[in-house]
Amino acid sequence: MQSDNSKLGELPPHGKAIGIELVSHGDRRCRLRLPYGEHLVGDPDTGIIHGGVITALLDNASGWAVRGDAGWTPESSMATLDLRIDYMRSAVPNMDLIADAECYKITRSVAFVRAIAHQGDKEDLVASSVASFMLATVNVPLP
Amino acid sequence: MKFLQKMRDEGRAQEMGALIEQIPYARFLGIAVDRKGNELTTILPFKDSLVGNHTLPAIHGGVIGAFLEITSVVQLLFDTSCERFPKTIDISIDYLRSGRAVPTYGRALVTRQGRRVANVRAEIWQEERTKPIAAAHGHYLLTPA
Hints:
- Chain A is an alpha+beta fold.
- Chain A has helices at residues 13-18, 51-67, and strands spanning 21-26, 29-34, 41-43, 48-49, 77-87, 97-106, 110-118, 127-136.
- In chain A, the strands form two sheets. A six-stranded antiparallel beta sheet of chain A has the order 1-2-6-7-8-5.
- In chain A, strand 7 and strand 8 (127-136) form a beta hairpin.
- By secondary structure, chain B is an alpha+beta fold.
- The radius of gyration of chain B is 15 Å and the shape is globular.
- Classes of the chains: A alpha+beta (143), B alpha+beta (145).
- Strand 5 (77-87) of chain A pairs antiparallel with strand 5 (87-95) of chain B, so a sheet runs across the interface.
């Protein structure tokens, strides 16, 4: 996995708005980090982060894993087709969330990605996801 | 969730707009709830920080997922008397159209409510109700009141 900080500026506005950082990216893999933030809380009594934040983090990580394919060019584009997330436990407040995504299959038109969200221990997952993306090039635009 | 119990005690449990104000992430996204009789519609006004794709511009897939989840949970809180916020067990999202730079609306249906688990379907749309931009079905863990 290569670290490529020059790509940091390319995270989408919403990724930047919630505070997602690109840790490493390449070879169909991606690792993102999301520092804890008050605006991400879903339950004000406990300070636990909202499930939707984890959805956004896993969606981002999955998309960037596809962008880490050797065949990806600046002209390529993609759209999420479906995303399924399993929530295993609440994220512990005041700790970073890490997302690791791996694109395990790319065909001409579809990419398949699995991803996990954890807080440092991959044996104790916060959530896991499976996603598929439609791929497009200039010659073959998205439907 | 203490404020939920407090609102129930004050007889304000059905004030979904006030309830959603208590969720920092929902407030951050700018989500509002409109209630007409017993029908709820969630509203997500467009803003630049929701964008996932600069060139279109399109709303971020993660925001769409979060909006579907919040729409589902709001409906679940409205329909049930759970003491705490339902916990999402899993959610499966179908992305149907790209979300454009206009307001998005959401509705959810509790398809089954068991003692511990509820099944909820949600759909969100923009200008045309019959052309949803995304749909979701999820399972939520309930804590009975």
